[in-house]
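G., the chain you wanted modeled:
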Amino acid sequence: MSKLSRTKNERRRLFQGLARDLIIHGSIRTTLGKAKAVQPVVEKLVTLAKKGSVREVEKMLASKTIEKKLNDDAKTRFAKRTSGFTRIIKLGKRLGDATEEALLQFVDEKIQEVPKLPKKRKIRK
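Predicted structure as tokens:
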């Protein structure tokens, strides 16, 4: 697992926030490194929710409403799947700092077209 230039507690809170946003919205746009780092955490959360390990899921998410939403989704949406609940779609480089961006989403979501950002115009002198 990559450290993402953070301490253990900062990394745990980052993963917690990204996992929450993914469960609430169904997909999140983030850097490729963060998406690759949080994907196994989300996969483990969905698997634990399917098994009924409420305490462990609640400990990771620290929110009863989001934990309830995940449990409902795990029993209905992911009932036929045993693993591979998420996917990473590469979006290209970010305009400001050229960091590789990615879309992390649940597999059963429809693939949506992400609008391309306009390229910088070259200024002629």
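The first strand starts at residue 27 and ends at 31.

Shout if anything looks off.
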